């Protein structure tokens, strides 16, 4: 008697859980609609407090600027990508390495190691 369920997704289960968690944190269409109606960066920061990105902007001290928001969000993207890459097995890890090293126009510039 074989139990295929015991070994289902044994290699990629943790990574799948990470991706599902990250997907749940993606902004919804209503979030984008509300952000489009914000007049100032402070309004945007208040709306973002109710999302997964709220902690990123709440930790910033001083005046909120567009470059600060861009830097915080880009750093978060690189951190999440690095987490996925460090937990990936081939062939996904090979593809993620390809993204970061071969594609020069890619906005994710992750330093190896």
From TrEMBL:
Coiled-coil intervals: none
Keyword Ion transport tagged: yes
UniProt keyword list: Ion transport, Transport
GO cellular component, one term: proton-transporting V-type ATPase, V0 domain
Gene3D superfamilies in UniProt: ATP synthase (C/AC39) subunit, domain 3
The keyword Transport is annotated on this UniProt entry: yes
UniProt superkingdom: Eukaryota
Transmembrane intervals: none
GO molecular function: proton-transporting ATPase activity, rotational mechanism
Matches recorded under PANTHER family: VACUOLAR ATP SYNTHASE SUBUNIT AC39
Protein's name according to its UniProt entry: Uncharacterized protein
């Amino acid at each position: 008697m074989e139990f295929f369920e015991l070994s289902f997704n044994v290699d990629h289960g943790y990574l799948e859980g990470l991706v599902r968690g990250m997907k749940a944190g993606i902004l919804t269409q209503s979030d984008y609609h509300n952000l489009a109606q914000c007049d100032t960066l402070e309004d945007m920061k208040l709306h973002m407090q109710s999302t997964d990105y709220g902690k990123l902007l709440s930790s910033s001290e001083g005046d909120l600027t567009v470059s600060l928001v861009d830097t915080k969000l880009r750093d978060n993207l690189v951190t999440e990508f690095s987490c996925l890459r460090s937990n990936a097995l081939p062939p996904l890890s090979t593809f993620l390495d390809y993204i970061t090293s071969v594609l020069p126009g890619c906005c994710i510039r992750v330093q190896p190691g």
